[in-house]
Amino acid sequence: MLEKLFILLLIFIKILSADEVDLKMQKECNQDSIESYLGIYIVDFFGKSSSFYDKNLEEMIVSKNIGSEYIITKEEYKEPSWQDKEAIKNPIYKIECIKRYKEEGNVPDRNYSDFSGFGMNRDFIKLLKVYENKDDLEQSYHSGIFEIDNNDLWYFYRQTDVILVLKKVGN
Fold first, then answer.
1. Where are the alpha helices (DSSP H) in the chain?
2. CA-to-CA distance for 119 and 144, rounded, in angstroms?
3. Phi, psi at 112, each rounded to 5°
4. What is the tens place of the pLDDT at every residue in 19-44?
5. Adjacent-strand bridge partners of 82
């Protein structure tokens, strides 16, 4: 009994010490429905960082991706056919939020688009992660990762600082 009270006290203290951004992030991530992001997406737009330097690679990424289809459904996760990846049957999806630290001196994580200057107005980055199976989920080995921006999904090529914007076109 004393243990449970102690745990509740720790949770209460944690909640009291959380700042407004943390509370907003927790609320949005916990209430968000994965189902609202499932569907068929088309790559509609791309952006690139000013630090990008390989024009040939940029042109290849853009030409192969613009207009290509991503299938993100309960039954299947499939990236564009040019990537030669097998579709994942019955994938597992998870929404996760990462807080952005905007204070001077904090360098954004290289794995997310804000490192290259995209989405700098966000307080946190909401992610849709794709897992092939439960073992991958437990080991945090994802098969795909998208940043959620309103109703769009962003696919960030961190090797090249190119971001693809996926628009939902169907369920």
1. 2-17, 20-31, 55-65, 134-138
2. 19
3. -120, 160
4. 777 777 777 777 778 999 999 999 98
5. none
Rounded-to-integer distance, Cα 109 and Cα 119, Å: 13
> Which residue in the block uniquely carries the two structure tokens 């459904």?
73
Rounded Cα distance, 98 and 110, in Å? 13
Main-chain dihedrals φ then ψ at residue 106, nearest 5 degrees: -90, 120
- Give me 109's structure tokens: 């994580």
**Both tokens assigned to 120:** 């700098």
Task: For residue 151, give both structure tokens.
Answer: 């109703």
Would you call 122 exposed, middle or buried from its count of C-beta atoms within 10 A (0-12, 13-18, 19+)?
A: middle
What are the CA-CA distances from residue 22 to residues 19, 68, 97 (Å)? 5, 36, 10
Is the whole model's pTM more than 0.85, yes or no? no
CA distance 116 to 110: 8
Give the residue carrying structure tokens 């991706």: 65
Tell me if 76 sits within 8 A of 128, measured CB to CB: no
Q: Are 127 and 148 in contact (CB under 8 A)?
A: yes
Give 148-170 as a DSSP string: EETTEEEEEETTTTEEEEEEEEE
How does pLDDT run across 95-146, given as a tens digit for each residue? Answer: 988 877 666 666 556 566 666 666 667 778 888 999 988 888 777 777 888 9
